[in-house]
Amino acid sequence: MEDGGGACYFTASELGCAQHMRSVLSDLEPFRHYIDPSRTQVDKDDVVELIAGAKVLQIDTMSHQITVDSCYEVLTAAKKQGLTELTEAAYRFMSDHLLEILREPALYGRLSAHERDLLLRTRMDGDKSLMVAEINDVYERPRSRPPSRDSSRPQSPLSVVSLEEDRMIYRYSETSGEWKPLARMPQDANTRGCGMCTMYNYLFVAGGIRGDRGKVSDKVFCYNPITDTWSEIRPLTEPRSQLKLVALDGCLYAIGGECLFTVEKYDPRADRWTPVAPLPRGAFAVAHEATTCNGEIYVSGGSLFYRLLRFDVNRDRGISVFRYDTVVKAWQDAGSLEQEQPLPFRCALVGNRVYCVNRSRTLRCLLDEDSIRFDPQPLKAPPEAKGALFPFVLSLREKRE
């Protein structure tokens, strides 16, 4: 109240209310920084109090503050407070950064089997997309032809000089039928003689030949299509080129390489590579192929003299497809596509569609239970692609048209 002289007086009730407001404002002081968008992180020790206060104030500004260090505390507090959206945001963050979560035993080890399965299923959700990565041909010289197949003396890829250029990853759009750039390969990645594979919806690039001097690399890079970021993970125990990289049961296997018959395994939970049984005597450790099936690794082909085994297509019939029946244990002619002078290609599977990719065209083969057929017209190839193309499949949560 105010007297005639302009002085202000408060009743005891009003004074008590003011003191209470000052106390409330003092309690909310931590939220001043928390709500401030210029502050990018919240100490995980404050998470529980902040989430409880956020629920009282009916505000949601914690979702964008989740980090690897704080995500478990956020998840626990959000579940305790019954905050469904924040709980889902915490799970989504863990799924988006699964590789980092796996490397934190104090975090991943506290998740239930159901929660671990949820993270993986969430990560694999999305549009499965055909992609290709540009890689360097180990035999390619700048402005020169590859070594002749008729050369009487075998030539090692390490003796071939090649300039490393920026390499791209392209994604094929089923909607537009066009190839579009998705990401640039990191400058430190060695795309000549490297090994590539996918696991947990990540792309891994390992080993290869560095620069122009033929030095072999032990570096391993990982691309996360959900966050559109590259990271470098634990290097190989020994440098490798011409290796094959495969994924099996949540681990990576680096197989062989030039002058190497050794094999090593990467466990993301332990974050280390460890040696496993080497290739058997008589196996070829260069220009080989490797794949996995039913919990086992299969290695075939290759050469000790740096000469690729040639896959000859029928010049009259074009491309033929053969199917192996595991019940009757026999091969059968399943389909063909007439083409003049067909070129070699690599394949990737998306659903029931096999894509055969090279730099000149993309073929699509549809697999039905009773038949196999090619699209009558070839699809486009990446118009600006350089070098050889390595096809693979990743899931994108949102379409990048």
Name given to the CATH architecture of the largest domain: 6 Propeller
Counting DSSP H or I runs of 4 or more residues, the number of helices is 8
List unreliable stretches of 5+ residues.
Answer: 31-40, 142-163, 304-313
Cα(first) to Cα(last) distance is: 65 Å
CATH fold type of the largest domain? Neuraminidase
Q: How does the helix and strand content classify structurally?
A: alpha+beta
Q: If you average the pLDDT, what whole number results?
A: 77
Report on the structure:
There is one protein chain. The strands form seven sheets. This protein has a four-stranded antiparallel sheet with strand order 3-2-1-22, with no helix packed on it. With 401 residues, the protein is of the alpha+beta class. The protein folds into two domains: 12-124, no CATH class; 128-310, Kelch-type beta propeller (Neuraminidase, 6 Propeller), CATH 2.120.10.80. The protein contains eight helices and 22 strands. Helix 3 crosses helix 4. The protein is 20% helix and 31% strand. The protein is globular and about 65 Å long.
